[in-house]
Write a structure and sequence with these properties.
Residues 173-237 form the Hda lid domain. The chain is of the alpha/beta class and 239 residues long. The chain contains 9 helices and 7 strands; from the N terminus they run ββαβαβαβαβαβαααα. A 5-stranded parallel beta sheet has the order 4-5-6-3-7, sandwiched between helices.
Length: 239
Amino acid sequence: MVTYAPRQLSLGVSLNDDATFDNFYAPASQHHNALVVDGLRRQVEGKAEAFVYLWGAPGAGLTHLLQASCHYAQTLGQSIQYLPLRDMAGYAPAELFVGLEALDLVCLDCLTSIAGRGDWELAIFNLYNALRDGGKKLLVAAEQSPRELPLQLEDLRSRLQWGVTYQVHSLSDEDKQQALQKRARARGLELNDEVAQFIIQRLPRDTNELFCQLQRLDQASLAEQRKLTIPFVKKVLSL
């Protein structure tokens, strides 16, 4: 079984070691999402547009994809920084972004959370320009498309539309079950259809939440040397 061991970055931000391109579930019914993964790989490799905007509903896998890009960039020897803007509200953006223009790849998650805040929008606008001038790469994610994002600074909206925009589609419940079972197998866990369906039905449909709860089950299964059964899942997750 695999235990969660995040990689520590500057600013106290960490990457989930499970968040890789190989772990991103894009079934045949989600061919578009497979194209998104390919586009992100090419961005990191410098074979495609350097500025990419991802958008999709909560739980569609945006955070996973941003962190997967960071992991992939690191395997290529690139310098990276991942910033979940939802958790950065206590920072002054102009100070937070100091030096980021020198990095090979900057990933800004949860752009929706700072939309409408003038200081943040101006800081991101300036960062965008600095990264472009330096030939670096920027990957951002939000719940809305650039046109729909409630920004005050129209110049920032214009910049965000300069690059490539991908919509990441949410998985169906059946696909979420398959994704959960694939992640379980990667951890060395046996998760049969009955137990997987029970988890999907009882927990929020957000894939990030499902994977977090699978991590809890993995740790409990290892500690108690138990298989994943419905009674055991009920006990561990207090369902």
